[in-house]
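Sample 3 of the quickstart, ligand AN7:
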Amino acid sequence: MSNSSHYQGLIERYRDRLPVTDKTPVVSLNEGDTPLIKLVNIPEQIGTSVEMYVKFDGQNPTGSFKDRGMTMAVSKAAEKGAKAIVCASTGNTSAAAAAYAARAGMTAFVLIPEGKIPMGKLAQAIAHGAVVLQIRGNFDDGMRLVKEVAGEAPVEIVNSVNPYRLQGQKTGAFEIVEALGRAPDYHCIPVGNAGNISGYWIGYSEACGHNTASCTLCNGECPYLENPLTTTRPIMVGYQASGAAPFLRGHPVEQPETLATAIRIGNPQSWNLAKAAVEESGGWFDEVTDQEILDTQSLLASKEGIFCEPASAVSVCGALRDIRSGKIPDGSLITCTVTGHGLKDTATAIEGRDPVQTVDAELASVKDAILRHL
Ligand code: AN7
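Result:
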């Protein structure tokens, strides 16, 4: 490919800011470079003067933000000569692991909680040829087993306990700062296993020249340290589903429960990093109910044309509540990561709705039906 403007994924885009070398075999599906979409109708409807953007990471190749971390984790696994990768997943990590393993010629083993991942995500893992192990337990059980089995079998863990995952995920923050020409005032994000909020904080920190622990991976040579893109960092706000909100309880939750199955997680692996991100930035954690999540998913789809999965609506859901209460003040510039695509889980999106009307295949019936709605 000779066209140098052809986008080739986030490792090529941010090569000098990531722990890769000429010897790293880049495994990419051209992930990243996702749209930052300004909300136009919802802010007007609630009568606020905030400027609010959605970072729609559901538009990545496998439909979620996980591709950002997976391109890094699988590329580094390939560099080590790994033949197989393993992860526990509520669905999106397994879809991404399966796709990138297929691309790299590796075997992906994915541990999923029995009966708790939507069909779209399961179909992805199966289509890409992963070995799907449905365990009689939840995500946290799967995570424990993955860490144990990696000591016993030649498999590379690609969950976000693998530090290369967060290195890939930090690029979401770079893209936002470049698109806005500055850091937002607030960055709102759903929190499950707590990797993404940690990755964003690394990214925002590096973008404004703060040295972070992650920079040891780049040998302290991240070019943003010399030439920062911006001078500020956002206040980080992490939202959880009420039934799976360990950061709100202050300890792991034994039996996490939420219809936002992607974040049905009780024992987040990046606990300390996420807590530090929120504390250092002067932010907070809060929780939203399943009903609020569904209402926001529907609001984004019907008022803004953005169809995301339930877990992804959590960021916008929490942000809207904090805007209404004044906790996020008028005039703020706010970004919300919307992590996964709505097509991942169509069953939840239409449940309880009366979605279709059946009419005769005649002009009169179709015309009647249309006029009734105008
Ligand atoms: C759509 O796929 O953990 O706080 O195993 O799929 O970084 O865990 C998914 C997490 C938010 C939470 N939104 O992000 C998995 C998995 C969506 C997600 C999260 C997930 P983290």
